Amino acid sequence: MMGPVWAIVKKDAKGFFTSPMFYTLLGLCCCLWGVFFSVEVYTFVQQSYQLSLKSAQAGLNIHHNLVSSYLIIVHYVLVFILSALSIRFFAEEKKLKTFPILLAGPITSWQIVLAKWLVGVMILFTLLGVSMVFPLSLLFFIPLPLELFFYSYFGLFLVLCVYMTASMFASSVTESLIVCVVFSLVLNITFLLMGIGGELTSSPALQDFFRFLTFDQHFANFRKGVFSLSSLLYFLSWSAVLGLITERVVEFHRWR
């Protein structure tokens, strides 16, 4: 049952990890994260030094005042990177006319979507693994709360799974590479800004509703080390719904 899935995963993963575009975007991520992390470290050191001059209190919390801020930057950068990589899910196969061959094989739409999603997860692990290098380099100088660190990264992984699945859906509806990237970017930015409606209303009920929809609100729970079942289910639900919609689009192409 999983044989065809792993065959697609192997083929697509090889395509991703041998693509010059992937390494170009990965290099761009490293440059951006390196610059922003350096700025965050400099700001953290300056603020800690100023605080030590004013009082005898302990310095700033390295996770909440440095690592957490860095994770937000990683989050924002990958919103755009995942949108750029969206063409590799379905749009490029449609462009190259290999998608009908995939649909004609002995594999269900669910297996196709699952295989593409697993490849997306592999890409996320790679990107997040590279992003970890910068904060983990601090271990040479100062101890980090590693349990909280990896828990925060787990939350970031859940957030990015939603963006990745949205990008996969965007890729399934078009064969135009430009339209795919733009549509994926619109979807992901919409998710990113989904709670902004709370600032446009004075109704407490609507403010609470939009606050619940805000990705940053749920992601903040993980960055603080707070286990929230509602936040976990929130991200998993979005990924499941987007995966279901993508499966329906793939099935539509099969019978069109």
Explain the layout of strands and helices:
Layout: H1 3-17, H2 20-54, H3 62-85, H4 91-95, H5 99-104, H6 109-136, H7 146-172, H8 177-192, H9 204-213, H10 215-223, H11 229-255
Helix pairs in contact: 1-6, 2-3, 2-6, 3-6, 3-7, 3-8, 6-7, 6-11, 7-8, 7-10, 7-11, 10-11
How would you sum up this structure, described in words?
The protein is mainly α and 256 residues long. The protein is built from 11 helices and no strands. It has helices at residues 3-17, 20-54, 62-85, 91-95, 99-104, 109-136, 146-172, 177-192, 204-213, 215-223, 229-255. It starts with a helix and ends with a helix. The mean pLDDT is 85.
Q: Give the proportion of residues in helices.
A: over 70%
Let me know the largest β-sheet.
none
Beta strand % = under 5%
N/C terminus separation: 25 Å
- What best-fitting shape do the alpha-carbon axes yield? globular
The total beta strand count reads 0
Low-confidence stretches: none
Count of runs of 4 or more consecutive helical residues = 11
Overall mean pLDDT: 85
Rg calculated over all Cα atoms = 20 Å
Q: Give helix and strand order, one letter per element, not per position.
A: HHHHHHHHHHH
Structural class: mainly alpha
Overview features:
0% strand, globular, 256 residues, mainly alpha
Q: How would you summarize this macromolecular structure in one to three sentences?
A:
This protein is mostly helical. The chain contains 11 helices and no strands.
